[in-house]
Protein 1
Amino acid sequence: MPTRLEAAMDYEKVWGFVAAERRAFGGMLAALSEEEWLAPSACPGWTVKDVSAHAIAHPQHHLRTLLPAMIRGGFDLNKAGLIDGQRRGRAPADEILRQFEVYAEARRLPPMTTPLEALVDTLVHTQDAMRPLGRSYDMPPDAAAIGADRSLAKHQKIFGYPVAGVRLVASDVDWSHGSGPEVRAPMQELLLLVTGRAAAADLVEGDGVGSVRVA
């Protein structure tokens, strides 16, 4: 049965965001030096190249590619993702860029996922790759809000992202979540918080800031 969020969602709009954000991510990757490709990303153990290859693998996944990584990772989703990402990250940078061109508008999905997962993956991994390099990219606030709703509805139950006890309020779109001391920030920073990342300290304010991750 679809969740209430899934039932109400305009998937054509979501797919439009996915395609645009994949193209934007690929465009930024095309400007990287060899050293930047191999630099650490915001994900421990992942290089920028690993994260980028993982992000564009979403429309290429199928059971026979996912199962070996799941087995090697002991069916731990984070470990399996790292194993698969590092394998894909061994591809030449030009091949990864080619995949961003070929699969920008692809609508194939891994088992048990929706276009919402494709959107969250693309939005968040763009930041995982670019922020440690000192490169900035602003997510569309509406897309980030959709991603945050999905992450709170489904992913938090799996990964346990720590955003309880505060009220998250977006400063650039009509969106809020939770109760408690307020944490106010641009929507993209709130998406990063609800997916277990650190928000940019200079963009977050409110009495609840001490209860969330900032950097």
Protein 2
Amino acid sequence: MLTHILLDLDGTLVDSAPGILGSLRRAIDEVGLDVPESALGTHLLGPPMYRSLPPILGEQGAADVVPVYRRIYGDEDGWLASTPYPGVEELLRELDEAGVTIALATSKAESSARKIVAHHGWADLFTETVGDTPAGDRPTKGAVVGEALRRLGHPDGDAAPLMVGDRRYDVAGAAEHGLRCAGAGWGYAEPGELEAAGAAVVHASADELRAAILG
């Protein structure tokens, strides 16, 4: 029986692309950069923006845009544009009822993650909510997973958590700590991405994941 689970947020629990990409578009326009819409897709979602943006904006462009993006997304209203995927509410409630320890492990800023979790009424379901820091102290998913494990007391053996996420970064971050990762196939991954990364299994929906874990 599964006792601990680490859940990604964007693309796994909620569809937050409209808020993230909309805030990013506003930030780029405010800074005054000329970036086509085709460059701003869900392929950017997963790592922190300060890692995703330099390849398309350059180092200086990213340095200029990221603080503006953080203000629009985290301090203003961008974070509100997130919609739970079908079946996620039931998944979380039934995991909690089954006594599974649930932790959030996201590369999003931890402050924004906490606001989203609270906004959807889930704060009491998560033992820990772990994300990146304002200083960027957890720039990789492996660093986020490591911090989540530390806060949970490093459960191992039969208590080792299952990671659930929608991008290859989740699979790699879990593997860095010897954990299995179940792919959230309903999220932002490209076709075949999770399988190629080594996900233990890829589920097509949150309902399918719930059935696999809880029966």
Protein 3
Amino acid sequence: MSHPQTLTWRPLGPPDLPAIEALHRRAIGAAGPDVVKPEGPDFFPGILGGRGKAVGAFEGDHLIAYGILQHVLPDADDPRPLLGLPDSVLRVKLAGASVEPEARGRGLQRALIEERVALARATFKDTPILIYATSAPANVASWSNLMAANFTVRAVKLYYGGYPRYVMVHESVTQDLDGSEVILDPADLDGQRHFLAQGWRGSKMVRDQGGVRIAYTAPRPALRAAAAAERP
């Protein structure tokens, strides 16, 4: 996917902190923590200070979108055990993105996802990595954009004070699926956990008479325990 036209893309640094924080506040608006995590005062300075990287899209001098890539992460934010991955695999997380409300609908969320996946691969090209993200089941725009960029739901966990989040992992190769599929409502957390525990993966958004739902697909048995790490 090419970048939306007329924009300037560049890495963000400490001088961009005020613009990032202001855009974050505008973008989340009145959304609650069940949908979007409001970042604390130390988060963005920590990312710009070496705990990760940030990329931004500018229209003229105005920052209209940013994405965060984080590689220094707390122990509690570690999906490797549930995926059967060793500690030697580096966690690299798409740790949030914001788009100016007036700029939505221009493909910027999808572009930010793809930009950060490419950045993770380039930055850690000699290291096995796990590229992942978390997304609220209620945040359809977030998880549907991630699915369109080859992320699949691999678990449902409680994050950020007890709010459910999908753990979504970037699949570096096309998955060999056995053809089985079940369509589930994002609000049906127990149903999704049931299939996830058997190795199924939430792979695409479905719009039908039931509304917006998720198609879960079953990998072939031989692949269900396969490592999710992207190899150099």
Protein 4
Amino acid sequence: MNFVQVLSAILLAIFQISSVAALRFEVPALSQGLPQCVREFVTDGQLVVVTVNTDGRVGDGQILSIRITGADGNEYRRKDDVAGSFKVAFTAKSSSSFDICFENKIQPGFRSNGLDLKRQVEMEVEAGSAARDWNAIQAAEKLKPAEVELRKTDDMIDDIYSELQYLVRREERLRDTNESTNRRVKNFGILIIVVLVSVGLYQIRYMRNYFRSKHIL
């Protein structure tokens, strides 16, 4: 393995730590259902692949639903009565977070006989370079292993650059908001001082006229 391959492998491994998230949890079955959500963040135009594996089967008295929605209101996917494997890929429409929500309901008319119904869920979220099928790309474009590693590294750098650009834009928006808030606070403080001074002068004038009318002054 040459230096380029070693460097590419190291960079790819470091990046995949943050671009791949795997979780395992339980979703209890309830009569009304209670959504359990996992939130992830993606940048605009980034490819996201969500892979879900569950136990159980369709018709076992549980109805497991999955809904993937973005913070901007976009609904990327919704599927009811999920059992076994489920995979969905989508492209983020904006730089924001998105929620993957699971809701498990007891099937109407099903008698659990005191059993604690629940589903085991294993979920993996891949984003950016990690979400691409590099084996298919290598076969389609007839790339050598070193070329594949270079492509991975190039995509990884693009993802990092996109995230850095988003962070810069976000910092600029926060700075603008902070400056605007400071201006408003400053103007409000000046207004309060003007009002207090005006009220004080009015009270002094009123008291002076009052004492003069009573021939005290």
